[in-house]
Amino acid sequence: MAPGGIVQLIYNPTAGRHCAKRLDALRLGFEAGGAQVILSESAPGLTLSIDKQASHVCAIGGDGTARHVALAIARSGRPLPLSVYPGGTVNLLHREFAAPTEPARYAARALSGEAACLHYAAEINDTLFLACASAGPDSRAVAAVTPALKRRLGRLAYGAAFLGVLLRWQQPSIRLICDGREIRCEAFYVAKGRYYAGPWSFAPQACRTARLLHVVALRRARRRDYARFLWALLRGKPVGDGAGALAFTCTELSAEADAPFPLQADGDIVADLPVRIALRADPFAFR
After folding, report:
1. Rounded average pLDDT over 278-283
2. Contact present, 187 and 133 (Cβ < 8 Å)
């Protein structure tokens, strides 16, 4: 094996900020550190598998790409270290780890042998998420974003999609069940990391190393209720203090609605309600 191990570099060519030159610079950075590099592509519709020779996996893309790669590692049954290099529309995970963005420095840090950062992800039915999940106006906006719109507008694609959500507002009746307790709401948010949609947070106490899910449920999600939620979020105020909002922690919950309703996780639609969300028993090791 190469002195730096064998790094499987998994990139998403359809990611919002994919750059072939940056991919090549990152590959050269890993090779300069003594690693052998295996290039693999991850994109919608492609089956992703972890190479049997890999001793380290690095995902290049947004949070959706990182989620796909983490799921592939989980399914491989091998607890390989994972690195995430920002190259997507939104990169909440990279914010969590505050890693450098210069490719050579990033590769050197990933290969440095520093202790891995443990991250307890959450499972949603047969998939998982690493940062956050939600069902509400934002998940409807995510469902309306097409790959072509995302490539053309980047983050602005979500704003454009949300205009359609505003015009065709929905307030689903959602039932959350947690620790034998039933909570009726019209939108809910689950955090495994601190950040949501950028530098903001609806659960600033959420911690990747903690075995807890942080949940905020909006009992009513009318336009004005959602506007209050967003206003508190943008100002860094506790969103669970607003009228009709409930914040709590748990390790598992289930959610169902009176009609199929999309749930987004790390920026992708992963299921329609009903869903079961629970902490994974084994953490991922991030470098």
Report:
1. 95
2. no
